[in-house]
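dumping the sequnces here before i forget
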Amino acid sequence: MYSVFSKLLRIDVTSGKIVDESIPDAAMENYIGGRGLGVKYICDEVDPTIDPLSTENKLVFATGPMTGTMVPTSGRFSCATKSPLTNTIFDCNSGGSFGPNFKNCGYDGLIVEGKSENPVYILIIPGHAEIQDATDLWGKSTKETTDLLRERHGKTSRVACIGQAGENLVLYANIMNDLYHALGRGGLGAVMGSKKIKAIVVNPGERDEHVTTTIANPELLKVVIEEINKRLNASPVTGKGLRIFGTAQLVNLMNAMGIFPINNFQRGTDPRADNLSGEQIIQTIFKSKEACYMCPIGCGRLTATAERSGKGPEYESDWALGADCGIFNLEKVTNANYECNEIGIDTITAGSTIACAMELNEAGKLPSEWADVIFGNEDILIDLVRKIGFRDGIGNDLAEGSQRLAMKYGAPELAMQVKGLELPAYDPRGAFGMALAYATSNRGACHLRAYTIGPELLGLPKLFDRFSFSDKADLVVKQQNMNAFYDSCVACKFTGMGVPEDYYSRAIQAITGLKLTVTDAEHIGERIWNLERLFNLKAGFTRADDALPPRFSTPLEAGASKGKVPNMRIMLNMYYQAREWSVDGVPSEGVLQKLGIEG
Amino acid sequence: MENDEDNACDIQTSAIIDEVYPQFKKFGDFLRERGFNSASSGNISVRRGNKMYITRRGSMKGDLHPGDIVETCLDHDDSSIVISSTETYIHRNILLRTPGLATIHCHPPYTVALSIYYTEVLNQDNIVPIDVEGYYLLKKIPIITLKNPTGSKEMEEAIPKALMNFNIMILRGHGVFSRGPNLTEAYNWVTIVEEASSIIFKCLQLGMDIKKMQGQFDQW
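..and the predicted 3d for all of it:
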């Protein structure tokens, strides 16, 4: 297979042992790279029943055959583990330029295992890796750590690190790379912190020192790239909306559709939403655009408030730290977002857990030290974020995520989560496909496994009725499978807003030499999805976990989505049928055989 | 299992037909209006879980009624195949083996005419659009030539195979099969191909050299 080294680094931080390993051809061809490869190694090597913060857990970083090529949005890499927040298998991918630079050191993947006694960081250069002391870095923010390490190892180095939240085992701590890019959501930073690993530094040196791969069919790749760029430029989402407004382009749209969650999903619209919109960001805090490696879209926004500067907020962060907490002050939300990035915590879970606490307080469930934690109290926001990162006072409860918080205080129904992961910024009562996507996602409620907002609200590629039930199971299955493929290439899923699915399978064919149709690509995704499902079943998850919080059985009272609730039982049954799973959600022997997976 | 209610039997066929019928009706009407079918030719299907909903054999696509939509299993035969479309097995294989969740088969005249011209005169097994939209969206459309191009076993294999990497294909001298995530997209492909074909046809009438105008998509 072209465009890969078929080689990974395995580093045991308990013993200090570092070895190069070959990746079998079958693993590369059946799982491609990125998420697929990470999931394959986690399933092969990690017992699904372990404590995710124990020595036995592993982190599998992986690039894909597309990483570092000229294909648009190919600057991504992936990390897989067992999540301390959800207890599911968990992968995340991130942009920036860490991924291509890691690959230019001559490896497709890195497996980190064991647990160090003292803080360390990992340095990787072409053909060589070493473990170095990080005592002086422990306790520092992601920004301080990145700046110090880049000063130490040169400007050609790139850094992925944890902040104080990872050190303090906040269950939704991130690994931050290139300062502002996050391997987020499921607490990968806590797993890294549990191993006492502060950072991973890659330094491929100057361009002529890079270790490179070969493309199988440069002529075809040139044609495919030209066509991908044409599509990205022509799409109103990737060619206009994201380029002009960033991801916060969605605020006013989702608010108008009545699915912009307010006050912990108690409402779906608010007249103040525009204060947080992409239009407002442009007019107030915007400084410049920021793009990942080889990305013509450039959805990132470098911004500055009166007090500080940084990146964001993205749509989800803007909502979670803002509207979901009843806060519509863009400056306050932006400062809290900066703080999350520097401490290294996931903005969606941080905001949603604070919103959950606000509703618990409203319901009289919390003791007096939580008195200020009320919807709309913008002055406590940044302080709460710090408290979470340092597990300080009430921050210690918030650091556990909304599910554990709500259970501790006797109202589990007030946690807006699936499998322990907080819902992102789309109320599922206004997009029935999203309802099913949240419920069935292998890593908990997530908009990145299947994003039916595309067909249900944005009309991409063609509009679906957002309140119909019968066509959603198959749609969600197809999207979950294709997204697993994109995550394995590794490509940014925003391309799906402009580029037809087969363009990326053609690109992989040109890059790797594999004879791959779009149908084959979908089968690879299906294989990854079923493997993840088997891991979760072994970890103890059942059909009962494929469920939304009870709030979503009651219709919204106002806005463009009022009066509707998805029939989850019927949609879930149809979903299991579409996946060839039993009524309990267990993959059939037939489907496992078809995909070449041992049950 | 949570309880007895949580089994597959509670998915009501009638509830699904209530949702899909308006779409079948709409696109059946469109096919008639555009002259893409004779009175009862062509067929329409969608996937729903492990079931397929497909037009009844002999139904008038321009005058569909709820009773013209037949539910049949995707993974095994049931008695409904007796009344469902003659091309049920092709639709089933498309819905099982390709990314498509909806399929339309019809006989757009310019496209059918060109499929004969390209294979007989130009010795080319695909049409490469020369208009801007056709070129941008399609690149090329494969033409499959079969010994038995109506209701045959070889169609059940060859057509889904062609749709594994393309959204629409042409069966030489017969018609097109298209796929999409929904019927809107499947129908959209039919209209784009027919428009591209009509433009090629008119350029041929004007005496233009079509081959010289084609983009280079040999490897696409």
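Chain B touches chain A at residues 1-2, 5-8, 10-11, 15-16, 19-20, 46-51, 75, 97-99, 101, 136, 139, 164-167, 180-182, 184-185, 188, 216-217, 219-220 (CB under 8 Å).
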